[in-house]
Amino acid sequence: MAKQTILGRIAQLAKANINALLDQAEDPQLLLDQMVRDYTNSIAEAESAVAQTIGNLRLTEQDHAEDVAAAGDWGRKALAASAKADELRSGGNAVDADKFDNLAKVALGKQLASEKEARDAEPTIAQQTEIVARLKQGLDAMRGKLGELSAKRDELNARSKIVAAQKQVQEAVKSIDLLDPTSEISRFEDKIRREEAKVLGAQELADSSLDAQFESLEDLGKQTEIEARLAALKLGAGSTGTQGQIGQ
Predict the structure, then answer these.
(1) Based on the domain organization, do 155 and 208 belong to the same domain?
(2) How far apart are CA 39 and CA 31, in angstroms?
(3) What is the pLDDT of residues 157-214, one digit of tens each?
(4) In Å, what is the CA distance from 106 to each residue of 77, 85, 166?
């Protein structure tokens, strides 16, 4: 996967407007689930690619360090060979002195080659370092966006559960309203009151009948007393008449 392609994908995903996408979605919950999966997979792919890019950069840096070290080593060898040549030449050994000067020249050539390789690698290292920094920033942005997506999904899940619970309660309330148990209780209470009224009526009727019987007994007693007094009057009157006749 090319670096520019990685950067392009990371930038595209990191800049995604979640709220705008949710507003356009027919099923926001389904879209969030898919986006979380896509971001997770993209982050895993990007991490692998970035890791490879960082690995290549580190290898290039190691090669550059080796070239710099080699240039220094060849420089020291050239200096040593030149010093030996000067020493031999001072001792009158021009032939061997020339040999060491030639060795110094070879070492200087190697030094120049190593320095050139090190210089040639430096722009690449600078570019790769910049790319790696941008890739790391992009990955951090993607991870942040993934956290945002996950939080939004969890929020919608919680709100969806609350709405479902509210719907259940509303349905239960509707069913209670339709059944109207209070009206059934009222009808049952009315029935009990009617039965109580019947009992009271029957009791009052029974009490009235009993009072009537006692009243009839009282009336019968009065009538009996009246009859007895009438008989007594008659008896008394008869006794008076008999005495009168006897006195005549």
Answers:
(1) no
(2) 12
(3) 788 788 878 888 887 777 665 555 555 667 777 778 888 788 877 777 666 666 666 6
(4) 9, 14, 88
Q: What would you measure as the largest C-alpha separation in the chain, in angstroms?
A: 224
**What type of residue is 54?**
I
- Exposure of 208 by Cβ count < 10 A (0-12 exposed, 13-18 middle, 19+ buried)? exposed
Residue showing tokens 């109580």:
196
What are the E-state strand segments in the chain?
A: none
CA distance 112 to 162: 74
Rg (the chain; Cα; Å): 62
Does the global pTM surpass 0.70?
no
Whether 248 is covered by a domain: the verdict is no
Same domain (yes/no): 198, 85: no
Q: Which residue has the tokens 């520019």?
A: 4
Domain that holds residue 76: 3-179
Here the CATH number for the domain that contains residue 11 is 1.10.287
**Structural domain tally of the chain?**
2
Considering the domain architecture, whether residues 175 and 226 belong to the same structural domain is answered as no
- The dihedral through the CA atoms of 233, 237, 243, 244 has a sign that is positive
CA distance 35 to 41: 10
Q: How far apart are the first and last CA of the chain?
A: 169
Number of H helices, E strands in the chain: 5, 0
Of 139, 164, 179, the residue that ends a domain is: 179
Encode burial over 18-44: b for 16+ CB neighbours within 10 A, e otherwise.
eeeebeeeeebeebbeebeeebeebbe
Give the three-state DSSP class for 139.
Answer: helix
CA distance 7 to 119: 27
